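Appendix B.2, paired examples.
Example (i):
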Amino acid sequence: YQGLAGRSTKEVLQLYAAHDQQMKFQRSSVVTQLHGAIKKRLKQDLKSLHSFALELSKDFQRQSKTCLYQVLAAVQGLQLQNEAMQMFQIKAFDLEQSLQEVTERYEKEKQKRKALHNSLIELRGNIRVHCRIRPLLPFDDAAGHSQDRQRNFSEKVAYAADDETVLVKCSRPGHASVNKTFQFERVYNDLESQDAVFADVAPLLTSLLDGYNVCIMAYGQTGSGKTYTMLGPQLEGNLAFAIEEESELGIIPRATEEVFRLISEKPPGSYWVEVSVVEVYNNEIFDLLAKDTCGKVFGVKRDVVTTREGKSDVPLLTHETVENVSEFLHLVNKGLQLRVTHPTLVHAHSSRSHLVVTLTITTVVFGDNFGTLWEDEQTSQRLNKEASFTFPQKMRDNKSTSSSRASSPVQLEATEKMKQVKTRLQLVDLAGSECVGLSGVTGAALRETSFINRSLSALADVLGAIAEQRAHVPYRNSKLTHLLQDSVGGDAKLLVMLCISPGQKYLTESMQSLGFGTRARQVQRGQVKKKNFPVPSKGK
């Protein structure tokens, strides 16, 4: 048994070894098959990867060539742009030089234009006279005389023969009709608009910014259309003018609009505008923009004086700074509401005072550039005398209530060694000369008429003295002429707008106005004739 057990154990060991060998063989065959499959798959993947890499290399080469071409094109474009930029820089430099030359020529031409413009104004006469004949109106049909009521007083006797001639048919009972003609720089018939009137006024405003005082006044009998010419139509019950109808606006609002247009073409901050509104009533000056402690506007009596420089000045007069036409119209409207009016047989809203609206234009210039602003020697010397103060000093004296505005002097406070030159545009709506018998005024209105005619006579005396080149001009004979002293005579430009009523019943007053205008025309350099100015008669 021991031998059998030993043999059995040996057999068992052999069987185990055979089993192990059998298992190893089986494992070897599976691994071999798997290895073959893997090898085959790897070959396929390598082949695919090789093909992909080849295609990727070819695509990269194509894209590289394309990018290279694009880079070359961009470089060439940059080179062309650099060359073009250099050419543009050369052209820009040439243009800058040309612009500088053109600017210099423009400045010279501008100075020549100023000189020629002022020469033209002087050739036309520093005092120019235009005449406007209003149309016949319904109130002209009312009989104005107690004598000879059979005559047709609404008959038209004054005509515009042409744009420079007034024809007046003068007739008396039992006498042949006589035609008289009067020559003026411009004559407007009863159909010409406010636009046509202002078109001939506008050139004067250029002289204002050239350093000259300018005055535009309407002269004529009561009811002849002075206020309409200067302001425009008025609203019922109110002295404010109807600004809705721009085509009907008068000289005062249009002139202000033109002044602001001219200023807008200048460097910002180099000009600012102040406004004052006064009336001369019974030979007294009233400030129509003065306010009481509650801020309410009421007329305050002022006085006019002559400064040491020989200029007229109204101490404590209210000056309001304005930046546009709307602000100006608002102030003038407030002043007009205080203007004295009184109904007469000739006009229901007859103005009993002279209205003077003054725009003071302050020009700010550097001291070094002062001479170049006005190259005319006489103008420069005259303005240098007026601009003897520095800018900060004047700022402390400025009485404007709107000093915080953009164009006010406050924003220029830091600028030193600057000079300012003031010029005035005085727009005057004179009270009408009238015949007492025609207007039918009595009492206080009669006293007003007396003062009106005296002041108009004083104005005639001043123009007569200037025409005769007298050594003394009687500006102080009236508060009106004293107030207008700087704008009447000398280098100032004055435009007298004669307003004529065409009806027969106004013939006497129309002839007086036409005679006044005829003499005013003779106040020109080199054309002086010694004659007396026609003035309202003592009975008027």
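Example (ii):
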Amino acid sequence: GSLIEQLTTEKYECMVCCEVVRIVAPVWSCQNCYHVFHLNCIKKWARSPASQAEDGNSGWRCPACQNASTQVPKTYTCFCGKVHNPEWNRNEIPHSCGELCGKKRQCLDCPHLCNILCHPGPCPSCPAFVTKTCECGQTSHSVRCGQSTKIHCSSVCGNTLNCGKHSCTQVCHAGKCSPCQLTVQQVCYCGNNFKEVLCGTKEELFDGFGNFSCQKICGKKLNCGRHNCTQICHPQPCQLCPRLPQVVYRCPCGQTPLSKLLELGCVERKICTDPIPSCGKTCGKPLSCGSYEFIHTCESLCHEGDCRPCSHTSNIYCRCGFKKKVSVKSLTMVTAAITFMCDKRCNKKRSCGRHKCNEVCCVDTEHKCSLVCGRKLNCGLHRCEEPCHRGSCQMCWQTSFDELTCYCGESVIYPPVPCGTQPPECKKTCTRPHDCDHPVYHSCHSEEKCPPCTYLTQKWCMGKHELRSNIPCHLTDISCGLRCNQMLKCGMHKCKRICHKGECLIDEECKQPCVIPRLYCNHPCMAPCHPSSPCPTTSCCAKVRYPKKIHCKFTGKLIAAISIATKLTDLQLGDSVEISRLITKKEIKQARLQCDEECLALQRNRRLAEALEIDDHSDPFNVRSSGPKYSDFLKEDARKDFKFVSDVEKEMRMLVEAVNKGKHTKKSHCYPPMNRDHRRIIHELAQVYGIESVSYDNEPKRNVVITAVKGKSICPSNTLTSVLDKEMQSRPPPPIPHYKQTDKSIGNSGLSKPFKEEPVIDYFDVQD
């Protein structure tokens, strides 16, 4: 009815072209699913490669039901197939002939044809009434012809079962009766063994005495009445006695007929127990011990019965054919060929290509691997349970029938879900609980742990030296790069480590040099830190200008040392002190230094300066007052690596000019990783330029970052490189020493000016 309505109103669409099927267009209807198509469309579809069946020999497939057909439709017929090119009539169904359908109905047992007008779709069920019997055939009922239900009565079936002896005891049922379930006892053919089986089992094998073979020697008396049957249990009857005179025609070895032996005078045999005449020749029957190449034969004279054991020996191979040979008696040749195996292990690869055969005396040709593969499948959860094989394993066959969702549940993969499928990707913001209250910027994810929070915050460094800005939230241990400077447990020194976490000294003691001034010379003790004990009495190793650097050895003459210590205040005020009264002439002679080349050079320079009237504080070349003061160590390093210092100064000058001319108050520059000496040069030059310098990272990738601040950083008038260039060009005389008396006048007139102790500059990188 639906097909008729859609075809009449022209609302039915062809599945091939998706166009409406007109009432005057030639069509074709599938006899399996009854879909209607344009005739031209179905012709094109049948010729296309996409319509071909999978086996390639079944023809083309219907676009709707995939039913295979061998013939391609060529003509336009009505639905019942009687009329070709039916004409359209307004009062009839489109594409029908208007006559009775007449097709056979789908019911197999219905003999009536369809009695309605030509129509699309399947024929309706048959309306006729017929008389049908029940399944057992004992009762009958009147039902519709098209009714497919079976009729059952309440009577017992009673049909004969498969055994032919008993009847069916079930109530009226469909199909064949079940086999007889009664058990009977059957006997074998020879009559020696019995077994219980279901009634009717192997009835066709019954020979009148037994039903089966027990696979043992028959043992029945033969027709001769003297010998027993030696065959395996068999159906009746047994064979003739093999020793009957009418059966035996030759001697025991088979070489000579008995007729010839009778002519030679042998006694004729009357019964089966009479001996068979011997021809007197060598038996020559092949024995079971030989091989294909060398066949051993019986060497006894023609005889009855089995042949004697072979007396020969043979060289045999193991079953794998290895060259090792073993010589055994031919009697045991058969068993040796079965049991003998060499000790050689097979080194060939198995069929999987992964394992070795490793069998002893192997005779296998394929070397199939019997191990389980065990490799992980593509899902990463299960392992391959197939026998070990070559190539990649198959896809994991396990499937989940639960929905697979992301963490928040917005994205869903509907079942079936193959094993190993990752959760769907979700673009929603992550909804998991986080440790901080900062905004979440990452998407929903399937991992248990969220990515670290990268929100920029302010955090104190580990040593609480400064509050650092722009620090990601997830970073906890932050080092500012400055020295710790926390007071140690000794109460005298501060920690010199870079800003660190935890205690400064956990299980260690302070080993920094003691700074308590000595009793007699006021120099620091310099012994390893000893907070709970007095300073040890050792010789002072500090260097003083006297006028040459010598070691202070206040180890004796305590009275003179104490007197000199009381005059130190006058020395610091610039007054002269007479020490000849404090030290004896013998001690002065022992303490006087011998003049060397340096002393002679100083005397010569002093005389030259007095002759030219040059003051030791004057600066004739404007070297001291024309720019910043660079330390001697810095100059010495600059002379060793002039290009590096020049590049550093150039970068600092450009950085200072850029920050002074630009809008920003600060500008930074990061140097590449370098060694400790180069970092020290950068730190000292940064102090001259008024630039902040900090070292970061650990060795060997420790680098320096300099920051210029507007209004604070300056470009000096004379750079270090220019100062070195001027010194190289001018080569001025060495500076005049700060005393006017020779070594000889020291002991006579005393010190005219106080000697300044040369400062010992610690170039240890503080930021490092």
